[in-house]
Specification:
Elements (H helix, E strand, L loop, with lengths): L1 H14 L13 H15 L4 H16 L2 H9 L4 H15 L1 H13 L3 H20 L25 H24 L3 H22 L5 E2 L4 E7 L4 H4 L5 H14 L4 E3 L16 H11 L3 E9 L6 E7 L7 E3 L13 H4 L23 E3 L2 E7 L6 H9 L3 E6 L9 H16 L3 E5 L5 E3 L5 E4 L6 E7 L2 E2 L3 H5 L2 H21 L2
Parallel strand pairs: 2-3, 3-4, 8-9, 9-10
Antiparallel strand pairs: 1-14, 2-13, 4-5, 5-6, 7-8, 10-11, 11-12
Length: 494
């Protein structure tokens, strides 16, 4: 009975993390939730793995419940298949907090070494691993909960979201340690925590990159085409009409259309359609780019591409980091049978390759990324360092009316903050937005509406510390702290 109560407490702490992220953005919940996890582990070290695993299972199930919308409501997968698959991802991801707590309880017995050295390092290394293993899925990493309301967000340009994650875990470890310490230790920990969080306020005031050239006007299309209609042949004419009309009525230096806005291969579009779009854009003096599937140059595959329609030759960016099970089937011999139950067109995209050069539009170099590619901070550093503006095109109609699009917006905010550049987001049904270099939202379109969001963006130049060094300093630092905790634990072990 006691074990059950401990696991229920861990599940409650994990499930509450839903409210730490967008759209709720109660950033203080995350360090408190991790502190509760650490305290439960300190009191019951023999159950450390299961405490961490149950916390993770509850946290990731509550944060990713929108997977059910995608599999059942939109893709049409039967309930008896959809429900187990919804739980499969959290069940896998929960292994990382489970192992982090198990190792924290065993590396060293001294509480200060466990919660100030081992636990923050292990937690961050676990978050990095789950963002890399099996192509990675870093959504709901602790650091994202701090973007942009928390003082800790100020550390993102220094060491990226991973440094922020480490500081959240360190703060949680300090809180847990306070419960089990005397007043002197509590006072010292409180002063240190205030220094770390207070320094974040100062860091948020630093302008890491500089303006370049004049601001440009931008128009970001949001067609609000329902996913069940998007690829329907009967709705093709309506989709093409919606985006043509939005281009025809927009007035800006740069206009972006969302991911696969034109739901046909580039060379299969109706004759003259692209010429008409180009003509409307040229008459308005507007650079135009759209998401559209494109065949590879050898014709053997196809790409999830963003194509510029105002430059000779139609240069393009093609998505590199594809979504497993959505844009490609990892082990078709094992799970390919599931797709006979699903309405999932184009699930066999090819990768466009890493570090593709920016596209030059409206005299700015635009570094594009498609859909959840903006979940992977280090992968975007190379293109962003060559660009003056970043842009994300997405289609989140897959996830219905859920928190997924707000969580995705928060990821884009993190990328803008890390790289000190504007991030333009053109999405099918939300959240279409203009994000400033400090990660704050300049303007955002109401979700589930058909409109063109208009505003201004400013090209930027220069590199943030994170762009220069990537994740390496944080990962090396965490590895060193973990080694120190192990050496101290071995030295003092009876």
């Amino acid at each position: 009975m006691r074990t059950l109560l401990v696991l229920l407490a861990a599940a409650l702490a994990g499930s509450l993390t839903l409210f730490a992220f967008a759209p709720y953005r109660l950033f203080w919940i995350m360090p408190l939730s991790l502190a509760a996890l650490a305290d439960l582990t300190q009191r019951h070290p023999q159950r450390a793995f299961w405490i961490g695993y149950v916390w993770g299972l509850a946290a990731y199930t509550s944060n990713f419940n929108w997977i059910y919308n995608s599999l059942h409501d939109v893709a049409g997968l039967p309930v008896w298949i959809a429900l187990p698959l919804v739980l499969l991802l959290p069940a896998y991801l929960a292994l990382y907090p489970g192992l982090a707590m198990w190792l924290s309880a065993r590396v060293t017995a001294k509480p200060w070494q466990r919660w100030l050295l081992a636990f923050p390092a292990l937690w961050e290394l676990g978050e990095w691993l789950r963002g890399w293993v099996l192509t990675g899925f870093p959504w709901a990493a602790a650091g994202y909960s701090q973007i942009t309301e928390s003082p800790l967000a100020g550390y993102a340009p220094l060491g990226g979201s991973h440094l922020v994650t480490y500081l959240v875990a360190l703060s949680a470890g300090a809180l847990a340690l306070m419960v089990h310490s005397g007043w002197k230790m509590r006072a010292g920990l409180l002063i240190a925590a205030l220094a770390v969080w207070g320094n974040g306020f100062w860091l948020k005031s630093i302008e890491w990159t500089l303006p370049q050239g004049k601001p440009i006007s931008v128009a970001l299309a949001q067609g609000n085409i329902a996913q069940e209609l998007k690829w329907s042949p009967e709705n093709l004419e309506e989709s093409l009409r919606v985006y043509y009309q939005q281009v025809a009525t927009a007035r800006a230096d740069l206009m972006l259309l969302p991911e696969t806005a034109l739901p046909l291969f580039l060379d299969d579009l109706p004759s003259g359609y692209l010429s008409m779009m180009e003509g409307q854009a040229q008459r308005a003096g507007m650079a135009l780019a759209t998401g559209v599937p494109r065949r590879t140059n050898d014709g053997r595959g196809y790409l999830n591409a963003v194509v510029a329609l105002t430059t000779t030759g139609r240069p393009y960016f093609a998505k590199d980091h594809l979504v497993p099970f959505g844009e490609f089937i990892p082990v078709p011999g094992l799970i390919g049978w599931i797709y006979q139950f699903m309405n999932m067109p184009m699930s066999g995209f090819s990768s466009g390759g890493a570090n593709q050069p920016p596209l030059t539009l409206a005299s700015e170099k635009i570094a594009f990324n498609v859909c959840y590619e903006d979940s992977f901070g280090e992968e975007l550093i190379g293109p962003a360092s060559q660009a003056s503006i970043m842009a994300n095109v997405s289609n989140l109609a897959w996830f219905g009316k859920s928190v997924a699009m707000s969580q995705h917006l928060q990821l884009s905010q993190a990328r803008a903050l890390e790289n000190g550049r504007y991030m333009l987001r053109a999405t099918n049904n939300g959240m279409t937005a203009i994000i400033r270099p400090d990660g704050e939202i300049a303007s955002v379109a109401a979700p589930y509406t058909r409109q063109v969001l208009q505003g201004f963006a400013q090209g930027r130049q220069g590199l943030t510390p994170y762009m220069r060094h990537g994740n390496a300093p944080v990962l090396i630092g965490c590895a060193a702290l973990l080694l120190l905790a192990m050496l101290l634990g071995r030295k003092h072990r009876p």
